[in-house]
Structures are given as C-alpha cells and as structure tokens.
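Nucleoside triphosphate pyrophosphatase: structure, please.
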Amino acid sequence: MPKSMPPRLVLASASPARRKILQAAGIDPDVLVSGVDESLVVTDRAEELCLELARLKAQAVLTRLRPADDQRTLVIGCDSVLAFDGEILGKPDDAADATRRWELMRGRSGVLHSGHCLIDVEAGRRAEAVASTVVHFADVSDEEVAAYVGTGEPLAVAGAFTIDGLGGPFVERIEGDPSTVIGLSLPVLRRLLAELDLRITDLWTKVAPGNQTVQPLG
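Here you go.
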C-alpha cells in the first residue's frame, strides 16, 4: 500500500528537552524509551561512546515497533556526553558529583558531543553522525553552584548542565549548534534524513508559532 501520511518519527529517549526541540521544529514525535544500560559501552573516546549509545537506543526501540502499512516509520536514537579535562562526563552520579564537576568546570570550557542514529524501519537503512559543540562555562560562585545543584536539574543531564533551562545563565557562550547541546542537533537530523531520501519538511505535522498550519511539502 502506498504511503499516504507524513513519516512517523519515534524518539528513543525519555528526554523532555529532545522532544521539545523537535516539537518546536514542527515535528511531533512518538516517544518510546529504550531502557538501554549505558554502562555496557566502555571507551575512552567521547565521540565513539555517544554514537554507540545512540545506536543501541535506536536498535532497542526498533525491535519493539510495529510499522503501520500506510506510514513510513523512522527511529532516532541520541546520546550526549561532555568531554572535559580528559574525562567523559555523562549524567552525574549524585549531588556531590555534580558539585565537584561544576567546581572544576567553572571559568573553563569543554566539548559537548551528541551522537545520532536514524533508522528507516522498513528499508533497514540507517544514517549516523556525531555533532560537537564547544561550551564555555561562566565563573560561577560556590553559592550559585550549590543553588543550581539543589534544584536537581544538573543530576538529570549529561555534563551536569543545560542551556535551555536553569543552567542557561551559567554558560557564557558556545561555539557550534545550540541544539547539539540540548541533545539533538536539528541540522544533523536534516542531513541524516537527506541520506535516507527525506526532507525535514516531510516530517512537519504541528501547528507552527502564530497558529499557522504547517503543511508537509512532499
């Protein structure tokens, strides 16, 4: 049966920030959490780690999907880590770990790597890429670190910081794509879709800001 609906994108992530950035770009993904044990991948290369975890997440969700006959289905797996001072930093272990990291990171910079694995379910094709962005941290005070860690936000994110939440004021600037730091690079997603013979506009399904309806172009 020919496909009659916009492609379905399944996000293999529990991250509300990743879902939000897709929705802001006109894409309303389904969400299916992978449940992958991230400790299974051991490597000292940040780019390799985030890409392998992105693959595992996408593959784990792929095995649980039932594609619709009239809709092309895609799965996107993502993972982010911060490379800082010779360490690979995912989510902090606890508040003490988050505090330790911020005491080291403040006034310095690191590189946030986000791995992406996009799978076309029916065709069995995939496209992958890692996006990297340099993050320059503000020289925050002990009091600011304590207050930020006390919110709990840095415990839930790679590198113990955000740029789209409470941690935004503590990042002086970045060099690269902001959406990479949030955890899913929209420019990378566009390029990966092109490798699978799709345009990002094919996935538009939402009402855009200003209440104008977004119509798929294909």
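Notes: The two ends are 17 Å apart (CA to CA).
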